[in-house]
Amino acid sequence: MNLFLAAFAALGISSSIMVIRANNPVYSVLYLILVFVNVSGILILQGLDFFAMIFLVVYVGAIAVLFLFVVMMLNIKVEEKQESMLRYLPVGGGIGLIFFLEVVIGLDKEFVPLNLLSLGPSYESEILPEYLHWGETLAQKTGIEAIGQVIYTYYFYYFFMASFILLVAMIGAILLTLHNDPKVKRQEVFEQNAREFSRTIQKAS
Amino acid sequence: MFYLFESDFLGLIPETFLLLGLSALLGYGVWYEKGRESDMTSHQLWIGGLCLVFTFILLCESPLMNMILCYNTLIIDGMSAFLKSLILISTLCIFGLSFAYLPQERIKAFEFIILLLLATLSLMLMVSSYDFISLYLAIEFQSLGLYVLAALKRDNEYSTEAGLKYFVLGAFSSGFLLFGASLIYGLTGTTNFEDLGLLFTGVGPTDLFTQGSIVVGLLFLSVAFLFKVSAAPFHMWSPDVYEGAPTVITAFFSIAPKLALFGVLIRVFYLGFFDFLFSWQQIFFFCSLASMVFGSFGALGQVKIKRLLAFSSIGHVGYMLIGLATGTLQGLQGIFLYLLVYMIMTINAFSVVLSLRTREGEPKFLLDLKNLNLKSPILAITLSITLFSMAGIPPLAGFLSKFYLFFAALDASLYSLAILGVLSSVISCFYYISLIKLMYFHKADEVELKPILPIDSQKGLLLGLSFFGILFIFLYPSPFFLLSHAAALSFS
Amino acid sequence: MSLIHSLHVSFVVFLLGLVGIYLNRKNIILVLMSIELMLLGINLNLLSFSVSLDDLLGQVFALFILTVAAAESAIGLAILVIYFRLRGTIDIEFIRLMKG
Predict the structure, then answer these.
(1) CA nearest neighbour of C78 among B155, A77, B242, B163
(2) Membrane-spanning regions, if any (chain A) (predicted)?
(3) In terms of residue numbers, what domain contains B324?
(4) Residue A137: is its pLDDT beyond 70?
(5) Positive or negative, the Cα torsion across B397, B402, B403, B405?
(6) Tally of domains in chain C
(7) Taking CB atoms and an 8 Å cutoff, what residues of chain C touch A9?
(8) What is the interface pTM, i.e. ipTM, of the complex?
(9) In chain B, how many domains are there?
């Protein structure tokens, strides 16, 4: 398990470095897809099967594909110059490193696992902390069932808000990009159906 | 199951009405637009305005004063009622300003009104939010609508660039907000503000070992909010976005999200993290100083009107952050009073800017203000009084609010903030007076003065009402004092 | 044991997203991809915390962040498309119309 976690983590981090460093934006999108897949792998190791699949469906299947469409549609030139980011790397990288160390060192002591008591049968004991084992004596719900029990009942407000957000995104995307080109010929079906024959042809003299 | 959350919808009646109203407007716009394109925006503006008036009435007459809704995700209290009514009034004023603006700029999309109403709905829900998840969802809801509105004029390069910059900075700050919220969640196990406040009781101001990790999360949260409210040193995006966006949208940006975000800031920091006062007080102290300084010095070199207004709004945010940094109820009352007065002043300022339209287009540069006294003396005097009020000259409304805030700061022993506030008021006075000199005392060249187009009745009404407010609040401020005090008392 | 490791991964992914926005000298679509990386890091963060705390709220939060990320990327790409239609390029150097 640790090996898988290490593998997915290493691949994920190196892919995300390549996202920002790749010259060709199509490569960046493909590396982004690789990051998403690796993070899904980490989630499966944690036991969150629903989220792993949802990440694949939504992130890879919708968002990354959308990015790929847009990258293909816009005529993005492949950058030749390589050295422009390296100038900022010492300062930016240093700040990033300090930031990372501060967050990690500041928080490292908080997450000490309590593996002193062993209350139940040792079953995936390296992934879950030991104090979770009592939950398996009760009826076990799958991930998706547990979430469904909560978001449609107690947290229905979040569900409504998510739907409003999607409404705004839809209105906004259509408002911004819909292009009613007057040169494009269209058919107005209702007008065509409402035409009366007796009025369409008239004698001219 | 049906009876479990019945009272939740009773508490959300104003928001539900607004939602149903805007859905009806959306349906009307979509199905009846053919053949009525030229009138559709004004129809929607009138009906949308009516919708807002009814929502305001529902809000004021609501019998539910203090309630926690939807399983601890929303709260209704005095502050939320106050801020929601301010938000509704400000959106109504923005609608009033857009009656003339939309036809003049040839914006035919009725979705403008729908998006503004959706943004208002989200701001109302943001003010009521009681949990990090509902807060984030409301912030994103508002932000998405406003990204689209900032980029609305698709054939104008400034507008699309403004939309892009606003999008990048907004998403970036939402990322910070989420990171802070996720850290707080991981360290405490809850995202509800009240639970966090209860959990942190007695943590103690000097116990850095226990406090250290929460402070990291708090730092991210406060940076995110300061980005969104455009306080210095995170203010870089706002002059560009304010300049590029359509002017009524800039007016909306300056007023309504700041109202809601200050409500959110107060709820997060006074309710959720009050025990960490000595940590976040320093952050807001520093940012308040920086905002006041940047707001006044940054505006000195500006040549465009909307950028000047953006820098002056950064300065105002700096003053409001003084009230936030105090940690007392007096500071809160000062913030609410300042928000009220700021709303009136900003509406007046933007109404004047929108009234200065000539046949060629709207004014972009400060030099377009020159000789306003000859073109329209009433507009000139309105603008000068508003600028004096923004600077904080005594018998005007701005002075009252600043006075109150500085007193609150002195009471909380934040002496340097009060002193620096006064100094930056003096510096901002300098550039306001240079504007007034431009309007009155500029040498009238022999080049013909471009006459300004006549103002429509809605803008005139707004100008008159806000001017009246600025002049005479000082004579009878007690209703505003009572309102803001009632709002602040919800945190006692 | 693995909580800290997945937290490290999520922090690094978030950081790389942050770095991608700041040190970006190429084009704007990289900025949008870095925003997605940031949100991905946050999601992983929340999900790891949810597993370790045995609490469902983190998973609910992550689900809604996912939804919002999708909507936001749609709007971001729409704004990018209209910007491109007007300017013909999405290089960072040309976003200089308004100084600052």
Answers:
(1) B163
(2) 50-76, 88-107, 155-178
(3) 292-492
(4) no
(5) positive
(6) 1
(7) 5-6, 8-9
(8) 0.95
(9) 1
